[in-house]
Design goal:
The protein is α/β, with parallel strands linked by helices. The chain has two domains: 3-163 and 310-358, Medium-chain alcohol dehydrogenases, catalytic domain (Quinone Oxidoreductase, Chain A, domain 1, Alpha-Beta Complex), CATH 3.90.180.10; 166-306, 3-Layer(aba) Sandwich (Rossmann fold), CATH 3.40.50. 24% of the residues lie in helices and 27% in strands. The chain is built from eleven helices and 19 strands. The strands form four sheets. Strands 3, 5, 6, 10, 11, 18 and 19 form a seven-stranded mixed sheet that branches. Strands 14-13-12-15-16-17 form a six-stranded parallel sheet, with helices on both faces. Strands 2-1-4 form a three-stranded antiparallel sheet, with no helix packed on it. The radius of gyration is 20 Å and the shape is globular. The relative contact order is 0.16. The protein binds nicotinamide-adenine-dinucleotide (NAD) and zinc ion (2 copies). Residues 48, 50, 74, 102, 163 line the site of one zinc ion (ZN).
């Protein structure tokens, strides 16, 4: 499509009442790519629990409240339709399929960027928070920071890899667990969780114990978990994990839920030398990790690390795993009009896997 064929207006879903679950479709003016930017015609966006955190202003760590009119979303896939000035040397071109992830643009010069941790850029722009996100038909992006989508990978299936996929891939690389080790995944049936089970069990070869509500049992086991523990069916999940691990506990725990209760006893699942990887972002009033007492940490040589999405290199690697079919998102597709209902379902913990919005 040449730029002359582009419509003057297009559709976006915005948060019209931040602090509550409410979205509205608006018509926006077609933006013009500036120097170094590309304009992308998005076809799909995944819906991540972090979008809900931003919409509800639910995170204590958010520096500023989300404003009404914010276009959310950070798992976008579409085609480049226009290149801005000064993009002659860009590695992408018009017609190419690319992805947008949580970090929409980076400074390239801060300590995090220089260390290859661009997802933690000190002055990065976040897609869907003070930067228009992917719940819209067109979006601007720096030409050099889009993620190419491999040929043969369906756009709807690719979208959730741009946040859920890369986040769990990166978190597992930080888990310090080897093939054959036990890994507990909290929130194993969610958007991040079901992909984490797949990466952990299939790509790395961990022995996965998935924990979630019993309604998620099928998706967790079919994603490759060796065992499933339903939090609503098991009085003492820590004791259940000990029993499944010869009384010793797991080598690593991934916390992939915003639920404070999951964090509270996350350290209790660990064996000597084990590591908790914090990924889920607690909402409202976080509670302390119960056993994170210095004495327990010392006696069992435990570690707690945090993990923010993943680098651009990890995003490319993640999409390769998806293109080869090692991991695959389980998703259902909804229209833009359905976003409010999707967030309501998400808040009630009813979504297994991911919901992807068809933006056409
Ligand atoms: N650190 C990062 O870079 C990063 C990136 C993406 C998402 N996140 C965060 O990760 C979390 C998960 O995101 P998602 O999109 O997968 O959410 P989701 O809503 O799709 O999945 C969360 C899952 O947790 C389950 N759950 C709820 N309470 C639980 C409990 N007590 N124990 C075990 N499981 C429980 C739910 O049933 C659900 O299956 C959110 O907090 C999100 O903001 C962090
Ligand atoms: Zn996300
Ligand atoms: Zn930076």
């Amino acid at each position: 499509m040449s730029s002359t064929e582009l419509p003057k207006k297009y559709k976006a879903v915005v948060y019209d009442k931040p602090g509550t679950i409410s979205t509205k479709i608006e018509e926006l003016d077609m933006p013009e790519p500036g120097p170094g930017e590309v304009l992308i015609n998005l076809t799909h966006s995944g819906v991540c629990h972090s979008d809900m955190g931003v919409m509800l202003n639910a995170w204590k760590t958010l520096p500023f409240p989300t404003q009404a009119g914010q276009v959310g979303g950070h798992e976008g896939v579409g085609k480049i339709v226009k290149m801005g000035p000064a993009t002659e040397t860009a590695a992408v071109k018009v017609g190419q399929r690319v992805g947008i992830k949580w970090m929409a643009g980076i400074c390239e010069t801060c300590e995090a960027c220089r260390a290859g941790h661009d997802a933690s850029c000190f002055s990065g722009k976040v897609s869907g928070y003070y930067t228009p996100g992917t719940f819209q038909q067109y979006v601007l992006s720096p030409a050099n920071y889009v993620t190419p989508i491999p040929d043969g990978l369906d756009s709807a299936a690719a979208a959730p890899q741009l946040c859920a996929g890369v986040t769990v891939y990166s978190a597992l690389r930080k888990a310090n667990a080897e093939a054959g080790n036990f890994v507990v995944i909290l929130g194993a049936g969610g958007g991040l969780g079901h992909l984490a089970v797949q990466f952990s069990a299939r790509a790395i070869g961990h022995r996965v114990i998935g924990i979630d509500h019993s309604s998620k049992k099928d998706i967790v086991l079919s994603s490759g978990a060796e065992h499933f523990i339903g939090i609503d069916e098991t009085a003492d999940a820590v004791a259940a994990v000990k029993e499944l691990t010869n009384g010793l506990g797991a080598h690593a725990v991934l916390v992939l839920t915003a639920n404070n209760a999951a964090y509270a006893n996350s350290l209790d699942y660990l064996r000597f030398g084990g590591r908790v990887v914090c990924v889920g972002i607690p909402e409202h009033d976080p509670v302390p990790i119960k056993s994170a007492l210095p004495g327990v940490m010392v006696a069992k040589a435990l570690q707690v690390v945090g993990s923010a999405v993943g680098s651009r290199k990890e995003a490319i690697d993640t999409l390769e795993f998806a293109a080869r079919g090692v991991v695959g998102t389980k998703f259902r597709v909804e229209k833009m009009e359905g976003l409010t209902k999707i967030f309501e379902e998400m808040e009630q913990g009813k979504i297994a896997g991911r919901v992807v919005i068809d933006l056409s």
